[in-house]
Amino acid sequence: MLILECPYCGVKAEETELAAGGEAHLKRFGPGSSDDEFHDYLFMRENPKGVHFERWRHANGCGKWFHAARCTMTLEVFGTYTAQTSVPTQEIQDKIAAKRPGWTWREFADGKK
Amino acid sequence: MSKAVSVLNGAQYTGIAKVEDAGLQGMITLRGDLGSKALKAAVKAATGAEVPAQGSVNVAKNGAVAWMSTDELLLLVPYEDAVAKTAEVAEALKGEHALAVNVSDARAFFRLSGEGAREVLGKVSPVDFDAAAFVPGQFRRSRLAQVAGAFWLNEDGSFYIVCFRSVGEYVFKLLSTAAHPQSKVGVY
């Protein structure tokens, strides 16, 4: 059972109260972009064994979207943070670095801003 | 105008806890900046209660205010006053980025009381109802089995439950089943 703390209402919500929203921090490629960029934006997703960043919605609750950082292998949750950001917060990145030295995820990695 | 009735018109069920349709209740959804002075004043004027802290409900003599999310409140007022109060709140918040809507007839309102109240709700909702974890005045939006619902705990140990009217009958039957006299688990 996955338990995430909603950063908006402070509730420790379990999986059935939440709706998964897929991979976090996607950059949208819309009109004007090349076919390859649009294809990658639509279809290419990370599928990591380890550190992962996701979007979740507190559907049966305050209804807000937020981000979660967790490990897909151990289900360890590193933390949740606001949806109003396009990169994982420094605090979250530091927390992950402390537990998983040398982690990388897409363009984000240990020690890289 | 036709006579307004609550979703189950006062239905009751008694098992390990008492489930009852709590009748018509005026409810106003208010969205806006909860830190704004005008909003605080409007809420106080409409319900007599202050804007509550995160995850709680403030009950006054003739109304209550519940915290729904970072930008949403649920105002509880007498049913007859809901239309007028909604207009008052909207008027007071003119110029602010805020919205008040009368949702009284879109909601069902139940009261759950008695020894087994925590247990009955605990069976249908993924919330910790331990006496230390869920205290009077706490307000929680969650789910009741398959549908969305919200509830708070009163000082006397009873719960008030709010859900959509369209699922009111489902929620009543759900709570009644969970309150079956021979269904005591004894967790809480």
Report a brief summary of the structure.
The complex is a heterodimer of chains A (113) and B (188). Chain A is α+β, with helices and mostly antiparallel strands and 113 residues long. Helices cover 17% and strands 30% of the residues of chain A.
Rg of chain B, Cα atoms, Å:
17 Å
- Per CATH, what is the topology of chain A? Folate-binding fold
Largest sheet of chain B: 6 strands, antiparallel
Strand content of chain A: 25-35%
- What strand order characterises the main sheet of chain A? 3-4-5-6
Strand count of chain B: 11
Q: Superfamily at the CATH H level of chain A?
A: Folate-binding superfamily
Low-confidence stretches of chain B: none
Question: Would you give an account of this structure?
Answer:
- The complex is a heterodimer of chains A (113) and B (188).
- Chain A is an alpha+beta fold and 113 residues long.
- Chain A has a single domain, classed as Folate-binding fold.
- In chain A, 17% of the residues lie in helices and 30% in strands.
- Chain A has helices at residues 35-43, 90-99, and strands at 3-5, 12-14, 19-23, 51-57, 65-71, 77-81, 104-105, 108-109.
- In chain A, the strands form three sheets. Chain A has a four-stranded antiparallel β-sheet. Chain A has a two-stranded antiparallel ribbon with strand order 1-2. Chain A has a two-stranded antiparallel sheet with strand order 7-8.
- Chain A starts with a strand and ends with a strand.
- Helices cover 22% and strands 31% of the residues of chain B.
- Chain B contains four helices and eleven strands.
- In chain B, the strands form two sheets. Chain B has a six-stranded antiparallel β-sheet, with helices on one face.
- Chain A binds chain B through residues 8-11, 13-14, 16-17, 60-64, and chain B through 54-55, 68-70, 72, 126, 140-143, 148.
